[in-house]
Amino acid sequence: MHIGIDVGGTNTDAVLMEGTSVLASVKRSTSADVTSGIVAAIESLRADRPFEGSDIAAVMIGTTHFINALVQARNLAPTAALRLGLPATRALPPLIDWPGELRQAISARTYLAHGGYEFDGRPISPLDADELRRHAADMAANGIRSVAISSVFSPVNHDLELTAADIVREELGDGAAISLSHEIGRIGLLERENATVINAALRELAVEIVDGLSSAVRAQGIAAPIFLSQNDGTLMDEEFVRRYPVATFASGPTNSMRGAAATSGLVDCAVVDVGGTTADIGLLVNGFPRETSTEVTVAGVRTNFRMPDVLSLGIGGGSHVHEATREVGPTSVGYRLTAEALVFGGSTLTATDIAVAAGRVDIGDADRVRHIDRGFALSVIDRIAERVAEAVDRMRTSAAPIPVVAVGGGSILLPDVLPIFGEVQRPDNYAVANAIGASIAQVGGEIDKVVAVDPGRRDAILDDVRQEAVDKAIAAGATPKSVQIVDFDEVPLPYLPGNATRVRAKAVGDLDMSR
Amino acid sequence: MSWHITADSISSLARGAAVLGTGGGGDPYVGALLARQAIGDGSVEVVPLESVPDDAVVVTAAMMGAPTVMVEKLPNLDEVVAAIEALSAQLERRPTHIACAEVGGVNSTIPVAAAAMLGLPLLDGDGMGRAFPELQMVLPTLYGITASPLAIADDKGNTAVLSTVDNMWTERIARVAAVEMGCSVMISGFAMSGAEARESLVADSLSLCVELGDAIGAARVANTDPVAAVAERLGGRELFAGKVIDVARATTTGFARGSARIDGERGALTLSFQNEHLVATLDDDVLVTTPDLIVVLEHDSGEPITTEGLRYGQRVRVVAAPADERWHSDGGLALAGPAYFGYGCPPTRFNGMIQEVAA
User: Are residues A189 and B73, on separate chains, in Cβ contact within 8 Å?
Assistant: First the structure.
């Protein structure tokens, strides 16, 4: 047996799973401190379906804690941003476009140093160890405990980031947390650097949260390993979370998408998650969310780390309805739905009232919406369906047909048949799809490196890289037989001798729960 | 009347420049940051072409290279200045005014940064009235104004000044040097007098950029149609509305070549692009060709979409607008007509109506 828990902003959902079947599920309000909510969730599961601590093989947790800490600018470590690239890049130093409050919240200090590469791998300037030591000494003098290191074109060659990290660690001591940009983002210096600084600022909180989760689970008599969900839907162990807390940022939408897919049995589909305020639409390819190809702004900061591509429409169960235009949203009564909607005795016409008036669902007091013309209600529902269908159509990458899965409490707004796409699938257990998504026990290994592809040996060299990714997934805890390459990308770098090629491989397999 | 660009007006300028960039010119984000850094709390004076003294010394400032490199190896303000300093040493004269070679993407904001750094006024005009991919594709070329001497500066302090026989050679040699210098360099050239600038540049193009940027923002606030506002301000009209159903790309010879198909109620519109949108064809009829402007805007927000940003499923509206009429001269079409870019169709001339010009 294993446990999946999704800690959202409003609710904490938990499921007790045996393989892929749900033995018990609970929904609780999220607590201010993350641990007591987890304890309450596990205790409720136990009340529902008694188990021994030793029955549990793993606990998987998805949490919005880290992204919320950033958005609220709370519990962030004093952080330095060190960039290697002089004499280039000086005019636009690190954190240049950050909101002032967030800079303050991380007591930011920025440093520029020599180093970095040209687009073709030639050095911009050699690393200057003395310069780095001076910067590190200044960091120490200013109470910096976490450092983000970025280097120009480090996605092409990251060796200078590694060397600089060694020098900084010598000065600051082993206690300093160091985050390297090539491990976090892609080409686009400011965006990659920003993501790295965010990761650095969350490192201390990561230690605190992981320790808290761990002791909460141990206190329940569960000795099994604890995993957190990351943006791509695979699991990371405690040690990984301590180093890459930023990798949890989009685990919420990812878990809901993967949960929807798992309960519907589909691996390639579009998922529409309708909540109280928004309808979030994403695409699953091979069981994993498609990632964005553009910048993502988080808490006012432009970043480019790998996030699922999610399109949000202002359509939810609590959306206001504009009678003249028959449009709903984007404003919403949100969590006050059960007080403000007509069917719940309130005085605001919401999308939920329309769903009741259209006869799609029977909740609250249907008499309170008897005065709404059924034709009007149906035309509002049609318009919602049209907008959602158009958004799903925008998300898909080709005209090939694709199944649509609807989850979330607000999915009652969607008709059974969508324009363009036909029948909408509504899986069982859709209310706890997040937690089911978190409980999908898969781990991954990713390799991203520049290799010289000698003529005639291309297949052998690329196979080696694939094998490395597979080995990494197995080392992360995957059952060897289950590991597959889910993503592979090969980009030749121009103007470099020796056919230099950037190769990215990602392998994913099922977590071996017998270990 | 002269006017001022402040750090606050850069967003509108960059947005308007993305409209006139007709799909090319790269992401203006880094260029806008650079201009804001250079301006700080100050401002840059923008002078209309008619009030430039005849004996003014005007030079252009621009970035040359790959926009994708610029977002990684961020440019400095120093090399923007260094290129102009190297040019003025060669000229043995100090420039009195800075001009834009093009108004599209990053090269609408680099001259703002240059003017701010040097404390010089910027001309309200540019060499194209739009964006094109190569250095010689400017109206001053038609007036015999030479790009040479052309100064190039990189981030390391290297500068070079080219002396070339014509503007095509300047493009060829500068492009090779730019790659060797790291594929993102600053250039300055096209030294001309105030009288020459008045005659050869496209007037009021920076004002137009800011107006376009403001119009899109204002239409969204007022819930009116931003696309109609853009079409009206450009003296053009909305050509087509529909959904992008296919984007085919091939990166050959360093430019983003390809085509996009948009399906709408009136049929299928095909856009052929090479960095910029160059030809619009409805089913089998060629509607608009370079040098006229083909602008792709997001259906509802009116935000301009670059050729790199085109994706399956986007709802877009396509606006066509007339280019500066000098582009339709024989010399102008030889520089930047469809034949130069390898398209077999004869040039059309768009002026609100569609009519074919004798080839």
Answer: yes
Structure tokens given for B218: 């204002």
| Minimal CA separation from A71 to chain B, in Å | 23
Q: Test A124 with B73 for CB contact under 8 angstroms.
A: yes
Q: What is the pLDDT of residue A433?
A: 86
Strands A442-452 and A500-510: antiparallel
Mean of pLDDT values over B134-146: 97
Residue labelled with tokens 């480090």: A154
Region B111-117: what's the mean pLDDT? 97
Strands (E), B7-145: 43-48, 57-65, 97-100, 122-126
The answer to whether the beta carbons of residues A204 and A146 sit under 8 Å apart is yes
Q: Which of B66, B72, B155 sits opposite A153 (nearest CB)?
A: B72
Q: What is the pLDDT of residues A311-327, one digit of tens each?
A: 888 898 889 999 888 99
Q: Minimal Cα distance from B70: which residue of A? A: A188
pLDDT computed for residue A358 by the predictor: 92
Give B80-105 as a 3 state SS string: HHHHHHHHHHHHCCCCCEEEECCCCH
| CB neighbours of residue B11 within 10 Å | 16
Residue A496: what pLDDT?
Answer: 47
Using pLDDT thresholds of 50, 70 and 90, give the confidence band for residue A456.
confident
Closest by CA position to A63, among listed A210, A169, A268:
A210
pLDDT at site A440: 86
Best mutation site among B27, B34, B36, B74 for testing chain A: the one with the most A CBs within 10 Å? B74
Q: Are strands B43-48 and B3-6 parallel, antiparallel or unpaired?
A: antiparallel
Which residues does chain A have within 8 Å of residue B38's beta carbon, measured at their own beta carbons?
91
- Do B99 and B126 touch, CB atoms closer than 8 A? yes
| Nearest residue, CB atoms, A393 vs list B71, B73, B313 | B313
Instruction: Identify which of B69, B76, B311 has the shortest CB distance to residue A119.
Output: B69
Examine residue A87 and say whether the peptide bond preceding it is cis (omega within 30 degrees of 0): yes
**In A220-250, alpha helices (H):** 238-243
- Spatial neighbors of B163 by CB under 8 A, at least 6 apart, are B148, B149
**Would you state the pLDDT for residue A334?**
73
Rounded CA gap, B77 and B63, in Å?
11
pLDDT for position B358: 33
Give how far B245 is from chain A: nearest CA, Å.
7
Q: Which residues of B touch A (CB under 8 A)?
A: 29-30, 33-34, 37-38, 66, 68-69, 71-78, 155-157, 179, 182-183, 243, 245, 309, 311-315
Tokens, residue A111: 């440093």
Kindly report the pTM of this predicted structure: 0.87
Concatenated DSSP letters of A163-226? HHHHHHHHHH-TTSEEEEGGGT--S-HHHHHHHHHHHHHHHHHHHHHHHHHHHHHHHTT--S-E
Percent of chain B with pLDDT over 90: 77
Task: Tell which wins on pLDDT, A127 or A422.
Answer: A127
Rounded alpha-carbon distances, angstroms, from residue B345 to A200, B285, B325, B338, B352: 56, 10, 19, 7, 20
Q: Pairing state of beta strands A58-63 and A226-229?
A: parallel
What is the average per-residue pLDDT within B185-194? Answer: 97
Residue A297, pLDDT above cutoff 60: yes
Tell me, what DSSP letter sits at residue B204?
T
Question: Would you state the pLDDT for residue A296?
Answer: 83
Architecture of the structural domain at A73-202:
3-Layer(aba) Sandwich (3.40)
Tabulate helix, strand, coil % of chain A (nearest 5): 40, 30, 35
Residue extents of the structural domains in chain A: 73-202, 442-509
Average pLDDT of every residue of chain A:
89
Longest dimension (CA), chain B: 60
For residue range A134-173, list pLDDT tens digits in order.
999 999 999 999 999 999 999 888 899 999 999 999 999 9
